[in-house]
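Severity: low
Component: inverse-folding endpoint
Summary: output formatting inconsistent between runs
Steps to reproduce: submit the following structure tokens with default settings.
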């Protein structure tokens, strides 16, 4: 049973000046400049909510929907939204991303997604004079997906801090109601994902949906564009990508003309570059106002780095806050005067500092003797039954297969506990310590998908329990890991000539 807690900070008594960390917009701040343009109105309340506690079972990777009453008690305006995740032990500690992972949290209001959190944990700020219109009778649900990357159960709270101006507060007279339109490249659904394979696209960059071909084109959904029936003013947006993501773009098309109106750049604090969750997404500056006419089409795209690794089950999302009509200070989308760059809303986060990639007590699989030829490799208790780098003796030797043959991986046993696993190629030896930047899908391009079965729309599972290695692999040793639980490492080998035969 989920318990909900609500904490109300004292109301802000007077009109305060907004505090901006970093240079002003007039100084042409770079995307790496932190800009949390918190607006304050007479009567602003600081509301803190803790949703939970949520028990995360070993290896959990499921999508959960649940109603919540954690919301303001009176009508008014939400002007700021800041999400996070903390342990439910009373310490307020934020879990390390490589231990417990807030894949996403989406606050669904009256059936529409509105506020959201990914591991980049962007802070949403409505620009001065606008706020998301809120009513107590609105139905709120939380769609959450929490990853437990370990075999250890734990409990957490999803938290969110709201700046709220009640409708009867003096400051409410300054606020115009705003709405939100959710734009998602793979549709508005529980798990809108697509894949980016290493080498796809052009020059090491892959843009979805522009570069999508074959089966990937089927993942393009109507939610990637929006044609307003009346004139509107766009007020605020920022992008959401997964590791490997470089930016999201928002464009407006009017007739035969298309113009970019914003690029949400992914600013990586990660020393290794675009490979981890140690990132912040650029949001629009407070002065950003874009006039869109009835019949214009607003569309988005997402660009990923495809030179270094493959990225599976990734996203490209850009919710946009807007107001009906055209404001006096709005710049027409086609004018060429729209500011297309912004600033990030927070700096480096402590929970992303375990990078991984250090020496660990695991063997180099290329130096191990070959294991038995062919057969099925069961997965149980987070162990690949043969060839797991944590096993010793004969069980730890990479199982063998002839060129053109296959090995079969089977997740029937762990799936009984709703634990899903992948077999994802990584560069040899793939035996260093786990962290937010290691391991990567930087080896031969193969991936099983998440082996498992689960409720439709409430899981990332592929619906398959077995996966066979590709038949076209050349002789050699192949390392792999589990994308869901990256401490799991294994290897197999394609061999010519003699090999140890499986005992019957």
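Observed output (run 2 of 3):
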């Amino acid at each position: 049973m989920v318990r909900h807690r609500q904490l109300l900070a004292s109301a802000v008594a007077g009109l305060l000046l907004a505090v901006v960390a970093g240079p002003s917009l007039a100084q042409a701040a770079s995307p790496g400049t932190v800009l949390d343009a918190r607006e304050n109105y007479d009567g602003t309340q600081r509301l803190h909510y803790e949703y939970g506690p949520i028990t995360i079972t070993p290896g959990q990777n499921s999508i959960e929907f649940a109603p919540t009453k954690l919301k303001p008690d009176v009508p008014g305006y939400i002007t700021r939204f800041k999400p996070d995740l903390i342990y439910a032990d009373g310490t307020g500690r934020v879990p390390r991303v490589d231990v417990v992972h807030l894949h996403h949290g989406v606050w669904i209001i009256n059936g529409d997604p509105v506020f959201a959190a990914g591991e980049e944990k962007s802070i949403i700020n409505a620009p001065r004079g606008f706020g998301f219109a809120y009513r107590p009778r609105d139905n709120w649900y939380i769609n959450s997906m929490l990853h437990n990357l370990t075999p250890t159960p734990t409990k957490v709270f999803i938290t969110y801090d709201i700046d709220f101006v009640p409708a009867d507060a003096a400051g409410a007279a300054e606020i115009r109601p705003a709405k939100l339109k959710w734009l998602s490249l793979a549709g508005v659904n529980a798990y809108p994902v697509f894949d980016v394979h290493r080498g796809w696209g052009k020059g090491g960059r892959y843009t979805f949906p522009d570069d999508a071909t074959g089966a990937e084109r089927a993942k393009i959904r109507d939610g990637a564009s929006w044609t307003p029936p009346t004139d509107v003013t766009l007020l605020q947006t920022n992008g959401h990508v997964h590791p490997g993501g470089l930016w999201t773009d928002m464009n407006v098309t009017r007739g035969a003309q298309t113009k970019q109106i914003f690029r949400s750049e992914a600013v990586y604090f990660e020393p290794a570059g675009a490979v981890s969750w140690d990132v912040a997404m650029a949001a629009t500056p407070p002065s950003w106002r874009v006039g869109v006419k009835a019949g214009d089409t607003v569309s988005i795209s997402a660009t990923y780095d495809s030179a270094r690794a493959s990225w599976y089950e990734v996203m490209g999302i850009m919710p946009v806050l807007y107001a009906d009509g055209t404001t006096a200070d709005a710049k027409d989308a086609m004018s060429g005067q729209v500011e297309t760059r912004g600033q990030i809303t927070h700096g480096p986060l402590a929970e992303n500092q375990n990078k991984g990639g250090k020496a660990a007590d695991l063997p180099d699989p290329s130096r191990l003797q070959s294991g038995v030829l062919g057969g099925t490799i069961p997965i149980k208790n987070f162990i690949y039954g043969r060839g797991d780098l944590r096993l010793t003796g004969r069980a730890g030797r990479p199982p063998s297969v002839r060129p053109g043959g296959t090995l079969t991986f089977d997740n029937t046993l762990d799936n009984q506990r709703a634990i899903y696993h992948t077999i994802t190629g990584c560069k040899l030896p793939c035996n260093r310590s786990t962290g937010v930047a290691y391991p990567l899908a930087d080896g031969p391009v193969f991936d099983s998908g998440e082996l498992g079965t689960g409720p439709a729309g409430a899981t990332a599972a592929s619906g398959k329990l077995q996966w066979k290695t590709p038949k076209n692999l050349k002789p050699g040793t192949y390392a792999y890991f589990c994308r869901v639980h990256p401490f799991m490492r294994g290897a197999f080998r394609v061999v010519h000539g003699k090999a140890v035969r499986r005992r019957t």
